[in-house]
Structures are given as structure tokens and as C-alpha cells.
Write a structure and sequence with these properties.
9 helices, alpha+beta, 12% strand, rod-shaped
Length: 207
Amino acid sequence: MNITEFNYYNNLKNRLAKVQDEINLEKKNYLKKMTNINQLKNDYDVDTIDQLVSVLNNGDEDQTSENLRNALQNHDKQYLLDNMQKIDGAEFENLNYMYDEAKDVEKTLATATHFYNETALPVLNKMENSHLVRIDDLKSSGSDSDTVLEINYFSTYDDFKEDFAGANYVEEIIKEHLENHQTLSVMITADNYPNQYDITIMPAEGE
């Protein structure tokens, strides 16, 4: 199993890509607007580029005015982007909101990726390679990093204790399930405990 088989991971990757596409589109539309001088003059109800620069620079006549005039006339896209806050405050705030959203998703994705690589995948790969464990069902949440599975364990409680060292479970329940050859429910989670599952596996201390 690999990380791309987890629904939550894929959802976060897709969400991040979508936000980044929206940011690029927003910047593209802003630049398209700012490089259409005739439409800008019409939008701001002015007749000349000097009047347009004055409006965009809040009536100030300074070096910024000269720089802005040159940027508008030469379609200096980098300048127009770098100075968006002064040129179009509302658009700047909108883009900042998008950037903040992208950062939040990136942070969540990094946390989920660490959990899958350091906790979930090692556990699942160990189970898949064990002749004592058969995974009958596996469900990967799309809204968080929790992974739920049903397993059959083909050995004694002593072996179980060794294989599931560090996991949370109730001894009596596990012994009963093993004696009756019943399926065991397992949750691999970052912090969702206690819960209704027979076995809960969480990151080791410090991970």
C-alpha cells in the first residue's frame, strides 16, 4: 500500500491544487485588467493615463506615480503584482485570503503525510506481510487521517500482544474474539481515542 491510496491525502492534494489554480487565475485576471488601459480609463471615468495614475495613486504626485505610469504603459506585470496592495487594495486582500487558505491546506497536508508515512503505512505494511493477519476490509476517511479496518488474527493472545505492542485495547475483549475466531476492528488514528473499535493504534510518543 502507498500514500496515494488514502482518500484524505488525495482530497488535500486536490484541494491545494484547486486553491493554487484559483490564485493563478486571480492574478491572471488582475493583470489582464491592469494592462487594458482603455478599459481602466473607462472604469475609473477618466480621459488620460495621467488622470488614471492620479486616481490609482490616491491623488499623490510622487515617484510612485512615475513608476506606476511606466508600469501601465509598458505592461510591467511584475511591478503591477508587487504593488497590488496600493493599486487595488480589494484585490490584494482577496489574494491574501487565498494565500492563507493555501498555507493552511499545505500545513494540514504535511501533518497528514507525516502520519501516513510514520504510523499508518508501517502498520498496514506489517499486517499485509504477516501470515498471522488477514485484512478483510479497509476504509480510509476522506475528511481526516483515520483509517479503519477489519482483520482476522490467526494465533494466540501472547502472539497478539507482541504484534500489537503499544496499541490500545481491552484484554478480555481481544481474548474473547480470538477464542471465537471473530473479526477484530482496528482504527489507526492520530488522536481519535477512545472510540468504538477493538484496537486503536496511534503514533508512538514523539512521532
